[in-house]
Amino acid sequence: MTSSRWQSQIADNLQSWDSVAGIHARGGGAAFYRVEEFLGGECRLSPWEYEELGDVTGKSLVHLQCHIGLDTLSWARRGADVTGLDFSPQAIHEAKLFAGKLGIQDAHFVVANLADAADVLEHDAFDIVYTGRGALCWLPDMNQWASVCSRLLKPGGVLYMEELHPVLSSVDVVSGDSDKILQFVYNPFQSEPFSEESSGTYADPDAETGLHINHSWEHSFADIINALISQGFRLDLLNEREESFFAPWPELMEPVSSHHWKLKPELVPIPMSYTLKATLGPVK
Length: 284
Ligand SMILES: C[S@@+](CC[C@H](N)C(=O)[O-])C[C@H]1O[C@@H](n2cnc3c(N)ncnc32)[C@H](O)[C@@H]1O
Known about the structure:
By secondary structure, the protein is an alpha/beta fold. It contains 9 helices and 13 strands. The strands form 4 sheets. It has a 7-stranded mixed sheet, with helices on both faces. A two-stranded antiparallel ribbon has the order 6-7. It has a two-stranded antiparallel sheet with strand order 8-9. Helix 7 (142-152) packs across helix 9. It is globular, with a radius of gyration of 18 Å. The structure holds S-adenosylmethionine. S-adenosylmethionine binds next to helix 1.
């Protein structure tokens, strides 16, 4: 069950995500998500993701925090037998509509809080748990998350994710003497959530959503990796990249593909994202 400690923050986040899912799928955020291109056949995954995870044909893959299902359905197009899970009913509704439009009838989509995922879905059932791309920051507790991942996987199953790098989450743009510069402004050791009231969405800042409040949590590599080790995972790879799958500071960044950005060449690069692959040992 959802920890009561964070219940009100999770409820705020649910309301916020539910209010933007339709905008991302069909409104002003659809261009950011490249929905038209996706429906036309474009893959939403980063090329290194399918290279590092390997052939998924015939494998059961559960995508935690799947949002409107574009990444989930990209894995389905590559042959995986997919289940997407998200706590936003609107996001799951949109994901099901996309699956229907693409004729991917055997994709399953489930509404549930991450904390309840292993109670709602079958235990020890999946070859792959896939997640990330702006997912972990919405979760208060990495131990709980790692436990859910472990309970969902078959022994020998694989967790794979692409996420924003902890360094990127700690810095922000500030005005320097003559220019805008990046500076460390967020405490990476803070355990309380970072709470922010805003309107619109990263995919459509002008969208008329009304005010919504979001709570996010910082997670260091130590938090994430120690949580996985304690649940019986063995780390297979951890790769850091200059590329990010979104542009948090457009004025300092340039596109390197239709889905990736990095800091302009005159700036010292920082790690923007990482991928992690871990295998669950036979004994839980
Ligand atoms: C930025 S999206 C990440 C997914 C995907 N990579 C994308 O960009 O479309 C974050 C997703 O996490 C979901 N989410 C946040 N907190 C959750 C929770 N506690 N349980 C389940 N889903 C959650 C939100 O509804 C949202 O769809």
